[in-house]
């Protein structure tokens, strides 16, 4: 909107009229005008009211903060269609301003033309609530390092309050404000250490503002932590024999996820019939020439990783059986035998100890008899054994 459009449109005859009105107003005392302050959101609609007391038909002038006349007694003076006169009664003059911008802010003058010195000012205050803030990462987050995150609310009035939240707790940051004329740009910068486990962690920045009435404008963010890859080959179950087919799968992690996975055989080339597709290596109709140590390797900008699998292809048939299934049976049999032996030994030991105790007791009891024997034998004469024999018989 150019300055020409906003210029005051007072035609010469009107100026003449004004002069006569000034004279007229001198005779009209007791009139008064009152203005009310207005607060409105940017882009909204403001209603500016001038209350009249004892209005006697004088000219009412409404001016903008730059003291350009908007309405001259109900007649539009400034070419700005956003202003509309909606009411002009003996008590109230009302104009509206649509699509309010911060540059419309300031004092609007309501005055009776007769009384230039006693104008009333309606102060228009424009509020700019913040938008959802933006989050910027200054540097790429790498495991073991720190990440600097800035939350930015570029425009608000009055300034918004920015808070970093992680796991419902506030992370204190460095807040700075920059005046951009009528509005303020606010930022809050944090530095946090990051590990591999923080990749994908949720963090958010909340903007609060009086105009939001307790609501918050929240920007969610997921930490993107770069880390070196890890690889792991999932080994096949059981043994492999000639003619079997084998699919090796390599589990790869890393951020960024390694794009290429290299399969190789240590000190050798991959078998001719091996097919690689991404993280899988397929070998059909295995033969012993496939024996070897296979490597899965992956890398990204942050490092490289490898895992290996040693493949042994066995002859089909009994030889394989004795090497695989039978040892388990043998081990199981040996174990069972061992347990059986231990139980037997235990039983025998217990039985023997019980028996030994019993025999000791009988022996002790018979000891007395023997003693008696000896005494009797001694009394009976020289042939003790005979005496004993006799006694026992
Ligand atoms: C209107 O706003 C102005 C400027 O902020 C202030 O000085 C004045 O007291 C306010 N008037 C009323 C009636 O609130
Ligand atoms: C100003 O406008 C009001 C309302 O339309 C009218 O009553 C009054 O006569 C006007 N005054 C002049 C001087 O034209
Ligand atoms: C409101 O004003 C802004 C500039 O202040 C302008 O860009 C926008 O188009 C306007 N909207 C309407 C609906 O007039
Ligand atoms: C590869 O060759 C080197 C040197 O000849 C040897 O030391 C190494 O053990 C071999 N590795 C395998 C897995 O065969
Ligand atoms: C492959 O491995 C099996 C099992 O250890 C072995 O019996 C066979 O001799 C090996 N073959 C070759 C060609 O190395």
TrEMBL record:
Matching Gene3D superfamilies: Immunoglobulins
Keyword Coiled coil among record annotations: no
Transmembrane segments: 328-352
Ig-like domain segment(s): 12-125, 130-219, 229-312
Localization per record: Membrane
Cleaved signal peptide residues: 1-32
Broad class of the protein's primary localization: membrane
GO biological process, one term: homophilic cell adhesion via plasma membrane adhesion molecules
Annotated GO CC locations: cell-cell contact zone; membrane
Origin superkingdom: Eukaryota
Membrane topology: Single-pass type I membrane protein
Keyword Repressor: no
Molecular function GO labels: vascular endothelial growth factor receptor 2 binding
SUPFAM superfamilies, per database record: Immunoglobulin
Keywords of the record: Disulfide bond, Immunoglobulin domain, Membrane, Repeat, Signal, Transmembrane, Transmembrane helix
SMART domains registered for this protein in UniProt: 4.1m, IG, IGc2, IGv
Record-linked CDD domains: Ig, IgI_2_Necl-4
Record-stated family: Belongs to the nectin family.
Protein name (database record): Cell adhesion molecule 4
Species, as recorded: Chanos chanos
Phylogenetic classification of the source organism: Eukaryota, Metazoa, Chordata, Craniata, Vertebrata
